[in-house]
Design a protein that fits this description.
Strand 12 and strand 13 form a beta hairpin. The longest helix is centred in the first third of the chain and has 22 residues. The protein has one domain: Jelly Rolls, CATH 2.60.120. Helix content is 16%, strand content 30%. It is built from 2 helices and 13 strands. It has a 7-stranded antiparallel β-sheet. Strands 5-10-7-8 form a 4-stranded antiparallel β-sheet, with no helix packed on it. The N and C termini lie far apart (50 Å). It is α+β, with helices and mostly antiparallel strands.
């Protein structure tokens, strides 16, 4: 019988209910009182200052809950449960009509998003097949063509509830389409392992 092997898949981990409803409510309240700055590309997208979680009480709480999940996710990336550090966190506040441009995260290995408010179905995080890859440059997109994991150009995260966390490799490009709903609040993070060892050639990282 013929078999299809999913060669070199890219992992994306969905972790439902990581934050309790009480912590979600406290986080939203704290963010509303925090100083924010406007995004360079969207007048309806705002951020808090990028912070080391050790210097921010709210981010420290979120970090403690995310670290065990990062260890699980890191085992998928590197084949071993390593010690992980969240080196930076920040808040995204997306107002109605705003969007977040296509981007990836530099100088980290794993990134994540905590969802603090519901997202409109048309404004969920979308991941895009990495541009400039090694796949064929031809496409076959028709109304009758079936879209699957091997030919799709985009993956949209299924409905994420407040308190949910997603983790993904930092190089994976992603965006948020135009917000068609209420204010959308998330907290993003970047993380690094303590070390990477390739047969004795070791590189160590510090936050």
């Amino acid at each position: 019988m013929d078999q299809v092997e999913p060669l070199f898949p890219i992992p994306l981990m969905r972790c439902p209910g990581v934050l309790s409803p009480e912590l979600v409510a406290a986080a939203v309240a704290a963010i509303r009182d925090a100083p924010i700055e406007k995004n360079l590309r969207s007048d309806q997208l705002f951020h808090t200052q990028i912070s080391d979680p050790r210097h921010n009480k709210l981010f420290e709480q979120l970090s403690e809950l995310a670290i065990p999940k990062l260890a699980d996710f890191g085992a998928l990336l590197f084949g071993e449960r390593l010690q992980w550090t969240i080196k930076e966190m920040w808040t995204n506040v997306l107002e109605p009509g705003g969007s977040q441009a296509l981007h990836s995260h530099a100088n980290s290995f794993a990134s994540g998003v905590f969802y603090l408010t519901p997202s409109h179905p048309g404004s969920r995080t979308a991941f895009v097949r990495p541009p400039g890859g090694f796949e064929f440059s031809f496409r076959h997109h028709t109304r009758s063509a079936a879209v699957g994991p091997f030919n799709a150009g985009k993956y949209v995260v299924p409905e994420a509830e407040p308190g949910d966390l997603i983790l993904f490799p930092s190089y994976l490009y992603h965006e948020v389409p135009k917000n068609q709903g209420d204010v959308r609040v998330t907290v993003a993070l970047n993380a690094i392992p303590d070390r990477l060892d390739c047969w004795g050639y070791e590189i160590k990282f510090t936050p």
